Amino acid sequence: MSMRKKTLFIELIFIILINVVLLFVFIEVDLFQRFYHFTQNNGLLKWGELLLLCISILLSTLYIFARLWRKSVIYARLTKHSASKDPLTKLLNRGTLEHALATEWDRYLRYHEDFCLVLFDVDDFSDINENLGHIEGDRVLMDIAQKVSLNTRKTDSVARWGEEEFLILCPVCKAEQGAVLAEKLRAMIYRTLKDGIELSASFAVVQSKPTQSFDDLMKRADFTLHKAKKRGKNCVVTG
Description:
Elements: H1 3-28, H2 31-41, H3 47-84, H4 94-111, E1 116-122, H5 125-132, H6 134-150, E2 157-160, E3 165-170, H7 175-189, E4 191-192, E5 198-199, E6 201-207, H8 214-230, E7 236-238
Parallel strand pairs: 6-7
Antiparallel strand pairs: 1-3, 1-6, 2-3, 4-5
Helix pairs in contact: 5-6
């Protein structure tokens, strides 16, 4: 049974129980008969009977509002979650990581705790799409995203930075530690796909420097990745 069907089933049971209890109470106080006489003789109901009716209406109203509120909260959470994620890889999207990077840079300026960026790009990804198809290309990206997610710290932030480009923000991290992570991921990604096509990635690792601005750091990451491509790809270069 799916979660949605299970929830609907539980809510149905809850509503049935409420109605059974109220029906039992109504029968016990002969409320249905009193209503009948009221409609026939235009008599007045006692305050206790009116109170019972008010409680019934109040419970139904509260349940309806509680259900609507719960749905709105769940929808808001799902909307926020979807807006921060890349739809294919389920990693953070670029905009979300850019916000995290700005926050981390502010923290660095205040506390002077170094952090690292690990930028990597799938080598010759266009060849994979052209020779094996875009569906296989998407599978490659999803597989890489899963590997990265399982092998980074909970404090790290991982995003799909471009079509076949990924960026990892590693707080409280030195370049040497970032290089170890990059080499581990490089080895895990490397393999031969169909028709002898190799899958590999080039990595750039850069560490924050007090003498450089945030823009300089990002430029250094791009330049270091370019150096990794020039060295023959499928390698890790620290800048």
